[in-house]
Write a structure and sequence with these properties.
The protein is built from eight helices and five strands, in the order H-H-H-E-E-E-H-E-H-E-H-H-H. It is α/β, with parallel strands linked by helices. A five-stranded mixed beta sheet has the order 1-2-4-3-5. Strand 3, helix 4 and strand 4 form a beta-alpha-beta unit. Helix 5 packs across helix 6. It is globular and about 50 Å long. The C terminus is likely disordered.
Length: about 200
């Protein structure tokens, strides 16, 4: 298999999924996540569509506020979607085990490419995290963690290493960022080949 085909296979769930037929694996994953997220919104009280910026997608959904103490840690969940798709509305299905473990869960949305640049997307999430930091201060929270799926994991790492974290007052709220920064700065053989055509 030529290198470009191998890379495409590694980055496309449609080509490596064993649970769903290849022709619709990604759409099945998105559809099932959306259904589970809608069920969750009916099962537990939540606050939906809280604006943290001016963009249409700059919104947060909060889950578990009535179930966890005010000082509980906060988990910011950042959806994936290759920076070009995905929605916070379809990503809350991951929250229940974290709520059960005593965390307040916040699912954050952000602008998408190609309309937004990667810098725009990271700036959106920095605004979201700054909003959550203010919320954590008012609640007396024990700290904030970030969890990202796929592109969301990349965005979480970018936020953890952003200028937002240069402010010590902001940085002290984010837990686990030292581990991310240590990972990003470790010497080693990291090779990332461009896998999209220009």
């Amino acid at each position: 298999m030529p290198l470009d085909e191998e890379i495409e296979k590694q980055y496309s769930v449609d080509l490596w999924s064993h649970r769903f037929p290849q022709e619709n694996a990604m759409q099945t994953y998105i559809s099932e996540g959306a259904k589970a997220s809608e069920r969750l919104k009916k099962e537990i009280p939540c606050q939906l569509g809280i604006s943290y910026g001016f963009g249409k997608r700059e919104k947060l959904d909060i889950f578990g506020a009535d179930k966890v103490p005010a000082d509980s840690p906060i988990l910011v969940i950042i959806h994936g979607g290759a920076w070009i798709m995905g929605r916070r509305e379809d990503s809350s299905f991951v929250a229940p085990p974290f709520i059960d473990a005593g965390m307040l869960c916040i699912v954050a949305g952000y602008s998408l490419a190609p309309k937004a640049t990667l810098d725009d997307i990271v700036a959106d999430m920095c605004r979201a995290v700054a909003h959550v930091i203010d919320m954590a201060k008012s609640r007396g929270s024990r700290g904030i963690y970030m969890l990202g799926h796929s592109a969301g994991a990349h965005i979480a790492a970018m936020v953890a290493s952003s200028l937002l974290m240069a402010n010590p007052d902001h940085a002290l709220w984010i837990k686990g960022k030292e581990e991310i920064n240590n990972f990003l700065t470790k010497p080693g053989g990291y090779f990332v080949k461009q896998f999209t055509k220009n």
